[in-house]
Amino acid sequence: MEFMFDDEQREFRDHLARWVDDRLVPVAQELDEKGEFPRELFEELGGLGYFGVLYPEAYGGSGLDNRNAHYTILCEELARGSMGFAAIVCMHASTATNTVYQWGSEALRQKYLVPALRGEMVAGFALSEPDAGSDAAAIRTRAERTNTGYRLNGTKMFTSNGVVADFITVVATTDPEKGLKGMSLFLVDTGTKGFSVGRKLDKFTTHCCDSAELVLEDVEVSEECRLGDEDSGFLNAYLSLTIDRIFTAALALGTAQAAFDASVAYAKERQQFGKPIGKFQAVQFKLVDMLATLEQARIYTYYAAALADREAPITVEAALAKIVAADGANQVCQKALNIFGGYGLMNEFPVQRFLRDSYFPMIGGGTSDIMRMLIARQLGF
Q1: What is the pTM of this model?
Q2: In CATH, what number does 235-378 get?
Q3: Which of 46-55, 131-140, 304-313 shows the lowest mean pLDDT across its residues?
């Protein structure tokens, strides 16, 4: 894979990998067990400038060339340490803040984007609802015009960072009769009257990255808090979420790499029938198949990221990357659990966490079947 990276990207990966090994890997199991937002680590990583990978220096960003490739590296390396922590960062520093950067006023950028990139604020993005996930046209959260802006009412579901977010971009309909063409984006400060967390959802994966049900009851937002033109919200969100599929693929890569590394080490240490289990062909073949799946997914994911940096069309490529990496990572983690045998079922070994976390990229950001549907449409079906 080294041939795919330039010197700047290799240096970026090396510095980040050291932070992951020193600060994240040692506490990953604890983060999973406690299921709490790791604020200290979050603020530390923000202070180091990693949240600004996608953004220009004017707002505290890195101003990097090939920013999407760099962000893909960031997501993969963090997920190698902890998928839960990586999921927090992946949402926060991409779509949740990109909406403010792309379509927010300068005042909103200074108030929310700049501190968010420093790790001083947490961002979220709310699209899904109890009856609207893959079927985005079914969104019921309503934004009605007032004399000073808009009044929002509705319920959002499965919002990552929803419990701890300081601000959230909410997708709401301004004209239900227009379907997807009648939706807008709104920045909602979570301290606004009428906004509340209905409940923190209890899920079996990515424990330290919360998923929340959000309730908006007569939440008043100003005209300035509409991000972009009225009724253009879904198109804007779709463009951002398309690139996010590449980053979600990177999350899958990181967890698969962690599972593979753990399996190789275990196969060299675990003794059965008088020799390491890695000496048995059945185990060797599993490891080789795991490596093949991992490397194929990695090459395609970074290919998609490179296309994004060239501003080429990536609808098919991003969806394919997510399918190949997410489904492949799940397969790698299943093989890893098999190699660990009975110990793989024990919570003291991380392989069970890798397998649980591998389901997150298969669902988050659109299921693998939804990705297949999107690709089929591009093929003319």
Answers
A1: 0.95
A2: 1.20.140.10
A3: 131-140
Q: What residue segments make up the domains of the chain, in order of their start?
A: 2-117, 123-231, 235-378
CATH class of 123-231: mainly beta
Question: Nearest-CA neighbor of 236 among 188, 181, 190, 189?
Answer: 181
Q: Torsion angle, CA of 347/348/349/354, rounded to 10 degrees?
A: 40
**CATH 3.40.50.970 at 2-117, yes or no:** no
As a dihedral over the C-alpha atoms of residue 358, residue 363, residue 368, residue 374, rounded to 10 degrees, the angle is -150
228 — phi, psi (to 5°)? Answer: 90, 180
- Distance, in Å, from the CA atom of 84 to the CA atom of 180, rounded to the nearest integer, reads 31
Q: How many whole angstroms separate alpha carbon 268 and alpha carbon 16?
A: 27
Residue-wise pLDDT for 298-325, tens only, equals 999 999 999 999 999 999 999 999 999 9
216 in Cβ contact with 154 (< 8 Å): yes
Q: Which two tokens stand for residue 52?
A: 């600004």
Give residue 1's pLDDT: 58
Taking alpha carbons only, the member of 328, 318, 308 closest to residue 371 is 318
pLDDT above 70: residue 2: no
Least confident among 17-26, 32-41, 174-183, 209-218: 174-183
Across the chain, mean pLDDT equals 95
